[in-house]
User: Which sequence fits this backbone?
């Protein structure tokens, strides 16, 4: 026992020494321009995506009264199940088009509270090999395939450089609860030509999201990367299409009528768009994916009672209920990160929208 622990200490010490000698290593990656040329968005698809962005803007500005529904897996990890979900969703979107505008969650980057799998873009082989070159390729390929199904796509933009590789495929983006307060993300949003939702902070604070909207509407000059992958001074114009996403916080959910009213009052006070999206998952479902339909029901009731601020909702949904079991073989259509609502329940919940 003593020997094992001595060996363990020696190994750890040599690892630390090695890391101190080379604290950072690098490998070149293809530039955004190279990847976009390899996997291009043609003129017809680009026009389609622009139409989707405009529809989302219209919903968020109250010109289109349909409910915006952003639904899909917590994270994409397997192109086959993502495409199966996408095919089903595209069919449902066409059926429900007069009441809802459906956008697919296509998340390839995951923010972690501490550490964990960071998404398909970072670790596409799911084995810690962190083959980002393949991750960029597979992620863009999958998003392109999903967009070709006619689906508007939504993702969380976590690393500002990822936006340069994927931004042209997106109709909506989120800045997550863990990054809403970051100046770098606010600068990035200032240069995006698409609607962007800032989530409330993990502590439930909506002030940071209001501040984020106030920052992103302005032009910024900042450090970044140009399309050829060179370090560049970027000048961004400011984004007029930002809004709040309520996702609950450490003190519990914030989707109820009082919280929604308080949030819209705060947004109006700060001169921000009072119309918002509510995430039915995360702290709003207490991380129980099967509670999402009840949250949605409550939001629909608020709308029916005249609450016009609720422009959209978000669901974490996959082919099957729940998530992969720890250490068990991967199951098709089951979330690899947070638990999701399965397809049948998702379909039923969306078909019930009046
Ligand atoms: O939506 C996904 C998770 O809630 C988020 O990535 C944080 O995950 P973690 O707390 O498991 O790291
Ligand atoms: C991580 C996510 O959300 P949040 O930033 O609200 O935790 C997510 O939607 O995947």
Assistant:
């Amino acid at each position: 026992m003593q020997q094992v622990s001595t060996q363990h200490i020696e190994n750890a010490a040599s690892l630390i020494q090695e890391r101190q000698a080379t604290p950072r290593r690098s490998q070149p990656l293809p530039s955004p321009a190279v990847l976009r040329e390899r996997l291009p968005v043609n003129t017809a698809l680009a026009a389609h995506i622009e139409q989707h962005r405009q529809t989302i803007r219209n919903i968020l500005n109250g010109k289109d009264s349909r409910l915006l529904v952003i639904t899909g897996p917590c994270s994409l990890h397997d192109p086959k199940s993502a495409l199966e979900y996408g095919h089903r969703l595209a069919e449902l979107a066409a059926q429900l088009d007069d009441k809802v505008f459906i956008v697919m969650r296509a998340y390839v980057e995951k923010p972690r509270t501490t550490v964990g799998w960071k998404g398909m873009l970072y670790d596409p082989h799911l084995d810690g090999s962190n083959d980002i070159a393949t991750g960029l390729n597979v992620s863009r390929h999958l998003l392109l395939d999903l967009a070709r199904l006619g689906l508007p796509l939504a993702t969380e933009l976590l690393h500002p450089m990822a936006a340069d590789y994927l931004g042209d495929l997106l109709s909506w983006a989120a800045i997550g609860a863990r990054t809403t307060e970051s100046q770098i993300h606010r600068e990035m949003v200032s240069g995006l030509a698409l609607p962007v939702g800032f989530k409330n902070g993990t502590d439930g604070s909506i002030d940071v999201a209001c501040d984020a909207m106030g920052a992103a509407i302005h032009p910024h000059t900042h450090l970044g990367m140009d399309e050829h992958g060179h370090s560049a001074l970027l000048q961004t114009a400011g984004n007029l299409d930002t809004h709040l996403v309520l996702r609950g916080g450490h003190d519990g959910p914030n989707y109820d009528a009082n919280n929604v009213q308080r949030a819209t009052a705060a947004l109006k006070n700060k001169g921000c768009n009072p119309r918002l999206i509510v995430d039915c998952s995360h702290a709003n479902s207490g991380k129980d994916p099967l509670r999402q339909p009840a949250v949605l029901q409550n939001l629909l009731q608020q709308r029916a009672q005249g609450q016009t601020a609720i422009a959209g909702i978000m669901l974490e949904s996959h082919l099957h209920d729940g998530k992969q079991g720890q250490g068990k073989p991967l199951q098709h259509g089951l979330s690899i990160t947070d638990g999701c609502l399965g397809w049948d329940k998702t379909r039923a919940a969306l078909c019930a929208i009046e």
Summary: Residues 74, 107, 111, 156, 176-178, 199, 247, 282 surround phosphoenolpyruvate (ligand 2) (CB under 6 Å).
